[in-house]
Each structure stands twice: as C-alpha cells, then as structure tokens.
C-alpha cells in the first residue's frame, strides 16, 4: 500500500475527518480483533472501578446527546 503523507496533510480538515470516518466504519465492519495497548485496558478498568464506586460520576446517554445538540445544534 502506498499512501502519500504529503497529500494527506494537504487535505482540508473536513476531508481528513471524512477519511477517518471511512476508515473507522471499515474497521467496524470487519471481524478482525484490534489489539489495544495495555494502558487502554488499565484505564478502562480504572474508570469502571470509579463508576462502580460512585455511579453519580456518570452521565446518562440521553443527557450526553442533549449536551452535544446544545453545543453543535
């Protein structure tokens, strides 16, 4: 595979985001396991422990979407 990094850097931000979204969607459609660095697993475990100890730290998903809507219309 040959990707020209200079061309990628020259893309406007919106096109870069669209490219990332396409790649993300493609990864999501595969059954290939994507290895995670150990720090990601450790951070997820830490956050789960924190939420288990104090559920008030979390925000319900409908509230998250309301905040996104307010911020980005």
Give a structural overview.
The protein has helices at residues 5-10, 13-29, 38-53, 61-72. It has 73 residues and is mainly α. It has one domain (5-72). It is extended. The model has no long low-confidence stretch (mean pLDDT 93).
Quote the beta fraction: under 5%
Q: Helicity, in percent?
A: 55-70%
Unreliable parts: none
N-to-C CA distance: 39 Å
Number of E strands: 0
Number of domain units: 1
Largest sheet: none
- Write down the overall mean pLDDT: 93
What sort of overall outline do the alpha carbons produce when their principal axes are compared? extended
* Structural class based on helices, strands and sheet pairing: mainly alpha
Question: How would you briefly describe this protein structure?
Answer:
This protein has 73 residues and is mainly α. Helices cover 70% and strands 0% of the residues.
What topology emerges from the helices and strands here?
Layout (H helix, E strand, L loop, with lengths): L4 H6 L2 H17 L8 H16 L7 H12 L1
């Amino acid at each position: 595979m040959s990707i020209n990094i200079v061309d990628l850097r020259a893309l406007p931000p919106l096109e870069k985001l669209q490219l990332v979204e396409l790649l993300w969607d493609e990864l999501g459609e595969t059954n290939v396991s994507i290895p995670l660095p150990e720090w990601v697993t450790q951070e997820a475990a830490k956050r789960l422990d924190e939420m288990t100890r104090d559920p008030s730290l979390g925000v319900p998903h409908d509230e998250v979407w309301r905040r996104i809507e307010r911020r980005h219309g």
